[in-house]
Structure formats: structure tokens, C-alpha cells
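This entry is set out below.
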Amino acid sequence: MRLSRWILAVLVPLAACDELTGLGADPDAPANVTYELLPSGDPNAPSGVLLTWDVPRSGRANSFNVYGRQGAGAGWILRATTTSTTFHDAGVPEGQYYVATRDGNGDEIAQSNVVTIDLNANRLPAPQNLSSISLNGAIQLIWSGNAVASAPNLFDHYLVYSTDYDASRGVCTANWVREGSTASDGFFAGNLTNGLSRCFAVSAVSTDGHESDWSASRLDTPRYDARNALVYSTTTHADSSSFLFFEDATKKLGIVSPASRADADLTVSLHADGTLWFAPARSAVTIALYSSKPITDLTSIDRAPQSGFGTTTLQAQPGFGYVVKIAKTDGVHYAGMRVAFVGKDYVVFDWSYQSGPGNAELSRGVGGVNGSM
């Protein structure tokens, strides 16, 4: 009888050290060991893992040893000793972890169960339909809520990334940085340079830190804009009847000037029937109607059309959008307009101007670009 008890006393600790299972009920053992991955932008290589556990019930715990190993069968390595009930392991996580309780003498007295890190578990689908709105020094991003819909209780937040755009090769560069995070299906990226294109992408993160694949990348370019410019007709107030989107010499924007100004872009003319019309003010400027129907806002204007521009006048109609093409020494620039109000002898309109030469991006659109992620 004494021999059998001695054998049992030896075998139980050995089994516990090998598999570290079945000890969750031990009052000295750390309980409820969980983990949260720290997203890096690469779903297969998190930047770290945060382990958390409960204080053992016995009250004998003085500190904890945290062990990790690459996977089942590999040797355990002491990762840290801590008095906290959390541990942040930086870098790509180990495949498995367990936590051991130490008493006041520094001796290990109990061990938690093994926690296995599964990089493929709880991974949400990549956000879809990423689109954008070009703004003055900013970009508004919007995407579908498919990641949330796939697992509402598992979703935690989105991560937004951006990088430079290489126009010479027509690709997004590999210099991706994190813009920020959000729990909504939209993100405002501010403090951007007008005329400088950037690529954006979005991922979804689960409650335990698993990051999804990225959305398709989205290219956009901030541009100048303003609201409620008022321009009179040439026959009513000739000194305030032309409009210049951008003055190259002074870098001023949205200038209302006399119709006689040589570098003006547009003038407003009054026809015999009382209607007001936009007219290109010089040969380097052409204009096109954006659509055959009114638009809801200036930001409804998409990329400048590839054709349809002319030097003929177009009637200023409330709610309608227009695109202006301006040839300059550094290349072609595009401007957008939406008429807010047409008075008896003046027009009020919102406008945008793309300072990037050759860039047709004026407001919003849906789609992606080829890019390295």
C-alpha cells in the first residue's frame, strides 16, 4: 500500500509538468488564462500577445512565472517573472503559454492550463466596398459592414492604413502606416496635403485581437474646396462677375474678380430670357455638365470625365454639377462646381479644385488600385 501511494505521488507531478492539464481547480493555480493578440497589419504575424489571468484563490501567490514554447513537443522557455496578472510578450507570439504561481520563497507551487495561440481562429472577413470622398486637406473613407454582419459578437474595431502612391508606376508603395482605428464603418483621415495622392486600406479586428485580411486598396487625392461663392453677371456687376479657382502667383484660391481679368477661369453671363450661364473666360478653360440630373452635394461629383468639355456656355441651374478643365504650364487641372442658388443677377455655388496636375480626382468614387500591402 505504501509503495502504490509513493508511485502515485511521483507520477502525478510528472504528468502535470508534461501536459499541464487538469489543474484549473487548484486554488494555488492561475485561473482563466486568456490572450489578446496585438495586430501588426499582417494577420499571420501579430506584433505581440497580451496574456491575462485571475489571482489564485488561495492567496499564497507572490509572483508568477510565464512560460512559452513554439508548439506541442517543444521545450518550455521562461518568458518572464511578474507580480502582475498580465504579461505582454512582444513580437510574434509563441505557439503555447502557461503561467506558474510562485510563493513568498520563490518556489513554484501551481501551474495553469496551457493556452494555445491559434492565428486562424476568430478571423473576420476583410471589409468590402471601400470608397472615399475627396475633401479639403482630408479624405473621408467608407466601407461595407460585412465584417460585423458575419459575427456581431466577435467584432471589436477596424484598423485603417495608408501609404504613398507612386504615380510613375501606378501603384501603392510599401510604406504603409496606421492612420487610426474606429468602431464605425467610416473614417476621417485629416491633415493631408492637397494634390498629393495616397492609398488607403482597412482591416477588421476581433475581440481577441485577430486581424482580418485587408480590404482592396483605395486611391484618393485631397483637393481644395469652399462653399457659397457668389458671382454676379457681367451686365449687372462687371467688377464681380468672374471667378478664378487658383491664382498661381499668390497661391490664393476662389477669387471673385472683374470680367476683364485676363487669367479668370469663368464668367457669368445674363441671357435675354433672364437665365444665367457659365462661360469659359479664356481659351485654356473648358467646361462640362457633370450629369443630366441635379446632384445632392458637391461631394457627389466623381472623377472628372474624360470627354465632353467645350468652350460653349452652360446654363447655371440649381442643384446641377459642373466640371471645369484648366490647362496650365504644369499640366491640366480640374475643378468641380455645384450650384446652390440662382438669383436674378447672380449665382451662388460650391466649388472644388484639384491642385495635382493631371489628377482627375474631385470627390468620391468606389474601387481600388493595384498596390503592395
Notes: Residues 224-353 form one domain. The longest strand covers residues 155-166. The chain is about 5% helix and 45% strand. Helices lie at 2-19, 146-150.
